[in-house]
Amino acid sequence: MGNFVCIEISDDQTLDRIIRCLRGKGYIRNLKKNLRALQRKMEDLRATQHELQNRVAREVETPHRQSLEAVQVWLSRVERIDIQFNGLLSTSPAELQKLCFCGLCSKNVSSSYKYGEKVFLLLEEVKILESEGNFKVVTELTPTSGVEERPTQPTVGQDRMLEKAWNRLMEDEVGIMGLHGMGGVGKTTLFKKINNKFAEIADRFDVVIWVVVSQGAKISKLQEDIAEKLHLCDELWKNKNESDRAADIHRVLKGKIFVLMLDDIWEKVDLEAIGVPFPTRENGCKVAFTTRSRDVCGQMGDLEPMEVKCLKWNEAWELFQNKVGGKTLSSDIVEQAKKVAKKCRGLPLALNVIGEKMAAKTTIQEWEHAVDVLTKSAAKFSDMQNKILPILKFSYDSLVDEPMKLCFLYCALFPEDYKISKENLIDYWICEGFIGEDDQDIKDAINQGYEILGTLTRAHLVMEANKHEVVMHDVVREMALWIASDLGKQREAFVVQTRVGLCEIPKVKDWEAMRRMSLMNNNIEEINCASKCSELTTLFLQNNRLKNLSGEFIQSMQKLIVLDLSKNYDFSELPEQISELASLQFLDLSYTSIQQLPVNFQELKMLTHLNLTSTRRLCSISGMSKLSSLRILKLLDSKVHGDVSLVKELQLLEHLQVLTITISMELGLMLISDDKKLAKCITGLNILGFQDKPCNISLLLSMENLRELRVVNSQVSEINTDIKCRESETYSSVLLNPTRPCLTNLSKVNIFDCNGVKDLTWLLFAPNLVSLDITDLKELEEIINKEKATNLTGITPFQKLELLSLQNAPKLESIYWSPLPFPFLKRISALDCPNLRKLPLNATSVPRIGEFSISMHPREKKNWLGWEDKDTQNRFFPSFHRGRRV
In terms of domains, do 330 and 300 share one? Predict the structure, then answer.
């Protein structure tokens, strides 16, 4: 018979206890098995824990590495589990003693059940921990928090700019901010101060990254610089391509509130290609940069960048004194020291370098010598070629092509602080061949010239003096002269001695090496030398006292392209030899006393630009039609007027595109107006002495490129605004359309001493008028007549007007019958206009009120004016204090 077990159950309570032990998850019956399994798993878990702790300890010994947060959390959980396990293990003997019936039941079912449940649950948690403990990576590289402060020297005059730049960068709406300015102006110094201010708010940003970009920087180099700050540059990083590096940088920065400081950028920095998240209001990140180019600011996304400008004189003088030192600046040296400081024109780089160089100079003679050198040839000053000019030259090197560089260097031919006419400068460039093509429309070449001027201005190589002129900073000019002379090695190739009081041609060692010479703004009366200038292409002699120009001197210049003799007021005769200059393209004789042109003048077959403006003794230019290449002819205010014979010669000039001229007879005006090609050439017109028969202003409407109009001592008939078109004998066109202005390029109108003019309503056809000057119009009653203007619907006059000058118009009562908006108006001058009782202004007429002035004579007339309302009076009354009589 087989073995068997017999269990005798004595009562119902015992039976109930057994049932409870057998049912459920077997916390009691499996207790021994679960406890043994838990002990084994804990041994394995502890081994994994120790191994992981050792790996972390080894890796964190490497600088800038820290344990992964997930690893730390796992280790912490293991420690908590270990404590729980030890607690359970310590009570296990007692709990096992409670078991009975071969471990299937317990003498204390409730206690064993709870203990068994804890063992089971802990075992499950250990299994989970074990499965989660397989870490392939246990540490990570982390960015250094805070700011690395940059060393800076004490500065002068930057506090206000620092505050302004800082406040703008901290605006929530500003994610990208650019600082632009010329080389050596102090952008980097200011930038370092901005960087250091982040230390004051270290808790706001996780990381501030400073990168010096410089010219020609590549994406890979920028990535390396950023990665170094983020501590990503390990061996693995070095073997990655740009795309993978960008991903790494982006991974680290995307969860950070960062500031990226990019110093000295020369072109757009592609943030996406580098891996830098784009700064937004939402992520709170910032990207700031410095550059010498205003264009780069726009490309980077800052459309309102901040310009770092040169110091004002009092600030410049303070900085210079700081560098020189008080001991050196004795009372007898101070005046010379101020002259030296002024040569720096507020440029901190020059003030620092020259100030330090002069710090040990204690005699008046040394300072006088410094002034002399800086005046005559600043490039020769000690340290100029080592510490100043090369730094500025980077801006020149960044220009995109050779023609643009030549255009820039050409600006150095003018004197210090000289306001260079944009129009004249572009004409020079065209003739020199820097811009434009021979068969190109002159307007396209001029537009190209303005584009180059814009680029040079935004690169801080030239500065905008006003709408029509640019000027060069003196130190930048010295840099240009240094470059033009092959970094000082060929000084005689580019001879510039302007405004230095010369009374004769300077001595030159090697005339044949000379390419360009500028002697403008001196006192030279005669040039009699016979030096051979066989390579000379440019000669500036304007604004001297020249009376005699040697034919032999001119004859030697067979490569001469540009000759400017303007504003030599007593110069009356050109040498015959000028006709032999086969390469001559530009000749300016404006404001001279020239009486006639040489007999063979028409042999100048290459001549494209001829300026005879204000040659009031010039009797004739017959034979002009033989100048077959002529494109620009300026005759405004010349004694030569546009009579029939001249107009017929002008009609033969096949390539003529720009013409300014004085007309004193209606037939000449009609001939030009009826010749579509010739009318299109007119950019400047002077109507003079139409007394016998009124000048028909309607004839001007075919001159679509007319920019400047002067009407003097003439009777003028008005334009009939009811006329819709006029048929010409040579072509059929709409000359007058009541809904569309015709004289869209007309910007300047001067009307003097004209009879019979009661109104100037025809000015409605000139919507882009900038300057209106009216003098001695005795019959003028109103500028715009309301009744006549009703035919011209939809036209609001004077939207571009900047200057309105009215003088000696005794019957003038009205400019316009109601208030007008004047978005650009800067000045109204009304002198001796006793019946003008109201100006067409209201409280919103002139937005830039701080730049606006009103001049009236007699001065007390301002008290007689009527105003639209009290607000208008209060707004404009202070403008009288800014005005002055002209």
Answer: no
Please give the residue range of the domain that contains residue 112.
12-139
Residue 231 carries which side chain, given as an amino acid letter?
H
* HEC letters along 385-417: HHHHHHHHHHHHHCCCCHHHHHHHHHHHHCCCC
Residue found under tokens 């001049």: 855
* Token pair belonging to 539: 């000669």
Judging by beta carbons within 10 Å of its beta carbon (0-12, 13-18, 19+), is residue 272 exposed, middle or buried? exposed
CATH code for the domain in which residue 414 is found: 1.10.10.10
Q: Are residues 133 and 224 in the same domain?
A: no
- Quick: pLDDT tens for 92-148: 676 666 666 565 665 656 666 777 777 788 778 888 888 888 888 877 766 555 688
Distance CA 128, CA 668 (A): 104
Q: In this structure, is residue 461 part of a structural domain?
A: yes
Task: Based on the fold, state whether residues 292 and 211 are members of the same structural domain.
Answer: yes
Interval 851-866: pLDDT, tens: 899 998 887 777 778 8
Contact 323, 352 (CB under 8 A): yes
Name the domain count of the chain: 4
Query: Torsions phi, psi of 696, nearest 5?
Result: -85, 100
> What is the pTM assigned to this prediction?
0.81
Q: Which 8-state DSSP code applies to residue 277?
A: P
CA distances from 120 to 66, 84, 125 (A): 35, 12, 9
3 state DSSP class of 602: helix
Picking from 193, 45, 23, 222, the residue whose alpha carbon sits closest to that of residue 105 is 23
498: nearest Cα among 414, 417, 418, 425: 414
Q: Where are the beta strands (DSSP E) in 595-699?
A: 609-611, 632-634, 658-663, 682-688, 695-696
Residue 173 CB neighbour total at 10 angstroms: 7
Listed in sequence order, the residues at least 6 apart from 259 whose beta carbon sits closer than 8 Å to its beta carbon are: 198, 205, 207, 208, 209, 285, 286, 287, 288
Query: What's the chain's average pLDDT?
Result: 87
> Among candidates 85, 69, 159, 168, which has minimal Cα distance to 121?
85
Residue ranges of the chain with per-residue pLDDT less than 50: 1-11, 723-738, 883-886
Tell me the CA distances in angstroms from 843 to 50, 333, 436, 838, 875, one per residue in order. 82, 55, 47, 14, 6
Long-range contacts of 268-273 (CB under 8 A, 24+ apart): 268/296, 268/299, 268/300, 269/213, 269/222, 269/300, 270/219, 272/246, 273/219, 273/242, 273/246
pLDDT at 735: 42
Residue 251 CA from chain centroid, whole number: 34
Ranges of beta strands (E only) in 41-172 are 65-67, 99-100, 105-106, 139-141
CB atoms within 10 A of CB 487: 13
Report the alpha-carbon distance of residue 336 to residue 341 in Å, rounded.
Answer: 9
